[in-house]
Structure formats: C-alpha cells, structure tokens
Amino acid sequence: MPTRDKESYSIHSVDNALAVLEALCDEPGDVQISRLSEKLGMNKTSVFRLLATFENRGYVEREEQTGRYRLGLSAYEVGQKLISRMTMLRQARPVMERLARECDEAVYLALRRDDELLFLDMVDTPQQVKIISLVGKRYPLSGIAAGSVILAHSPTEQPLSRELAEIHRRGWASGHDVLGEGIACLSVPLFNGEGSVPASLSFLGPDFRLEEQRLRDDFLPPLREAGQTISSKLGFLGNYLNS
C-alpha cells in the first residue's frame, strides 16, 4: 500500500478553523474580524463563520459593544486539562516504572473524563502471558475497579452505595472479568493538591497470576505505597491511607 504524507490527509476547513484559533492565541488583546482576515489571508465571511462556531462551543467570546473576539473559557479548560495530564504523567511515570519492576506486572494510570475512565498510560510487564494494552481505551466510570476508587472518593449529594462506601473505607478496589474474561484489576485512588481524586493507579493482568488473596497480600501494599508517593508529588498533603 503506498504511503501518504500528513499533508494529504489534511482537511482544509479544519485547518482554517485551527488557524483562526491559533491567531487568537497570538493576539495580546481582543481582536476584530478584519485583523484576523488580513493576518490569515481569509475572507471575512469565512472568518466570521468559524468564530461563530467557536463561540457556540465556548472556545471564543465576543465583546458585544466592540464586536471584538477573544479566547473563551472552553479553550482555557482544554489547556488546563492538558497541563494537568502532562504533570500527572511526568510525576507518575517513574513511580509506575519502579512498581512494575518490583512486582513484574503491568501498571496502569487511568484518568476520569466526566462519566468515563480513560486509560492514559501503562508500564508493561515482560512476562509472556499478558493482556492487550488498554492505553487510549475508555470505559464507563462505574463498574470497574479503576473507576470505582475514583467514584468512591468523589463528592456527591447522594449517599454512596454500599459497595462504594466499602471501597472508600478501605481505600482500594479489585475486580475480575469486568475488563475482559480472565482479567484481574487492583486499583487505588490518586489524590491531587485539592484533595480530589482525578485518577487511579492499577495492576492489570491475567487472573491466574492476580488471584484475590495474592492481590491483597503481595500487590496491595506496594500499590498503596506508590499511590501515596504519586499523590504527594501531585500536591496532596493529607493522610493517604485515611482519606
């Protein structure tokens, strides 16, 4: 199959939209459509339509009195989420690598995204029998150990279910066959500087190696220690085991 360079896959309308957004980022203050049109070499109608689309999604704000545009809160939120993820990855990765070497099993970092769980990073095991990588995959937040430890430590107006209350009390969750037949998971929460839990740290592997009693006896202590270390690196100052 012939290869194609990246330019051949470019979508012109998306490229124009991103150019407008980047141009707004470069401006020190609010900017008029005519300024963006001249700067980008695009006609005013096209620029207006792109700005209107961004405005509808909150990425751009329009000053009513002057008609000038600026970046909106949605753009700020995306930037903050990216910074947060990069910080978390940078702080967690060395700890994950040490944990994987110590226990010889795959270690996963999972992040909450609204009502979903995103497996963000993984340090694999050298063992021959292992599960297929879940990095980049999303799952419902509830029902799996890596998501349950996040839910169990999340503020809610409703009382926690009996299961989540127990997970909150003991500080960890485990599960079998939820992510796939024969897959076991052991998870602990990761706290940030605000005391909230945006992510979890987990062992994932075949259940014949990660049977329940061994999870608790051999894998839980180093996993909790790693969770405490990462939480401290993220600015958490509380008592990890009693949070």
From TrEMBL:
- A Pfam family it matches: IclR_C
Record keyword Acyltransferase present: no
Q: Name one GO molecular function term.
A: DNA binding
Q: Which residues lie in coiled coils?
A: none
PANTHER family this protein is in?
HELIX-TURN-HELIX TRANSCRIPTIONAL REGULATOR, ICLR FAMILY, HTH-TYPE TRANSCRIPTIONAL REPRESSOR ALLR
Q: Which domain of life is it from?
A: Bacteria
HTH iclR-type domain residues: 11-73
Q: Which InterPro entries match?
A: GAF-like_dom_sf, HTH_MetabolicPath_Reg, Tscrpt_reg_IclR_C, Tscrpt_reg_IclR_N, WH-like_DNA-bd_sf, WH_DNA-bd_sf
Q: Does the keyword Transcription apply?
A: yes
Q: Which organism is it from?
A: Geothermobacter hydrogeniphilus
Designated name of the protein: IclR family transcriptional regulator
Domain IclR-ED, residue spans: 74-236
User: Which keywords does the record carry?
Assistant: DNA-binding, Transcription, Transcription regulation
Biological classification of the source: Bacteria, Pseudomonadati, Thermodesulfobacteriota, Desulfuromonadia, Desulfuromonadales
Output one GO BP term. negative regulation of DNA-templated transcription
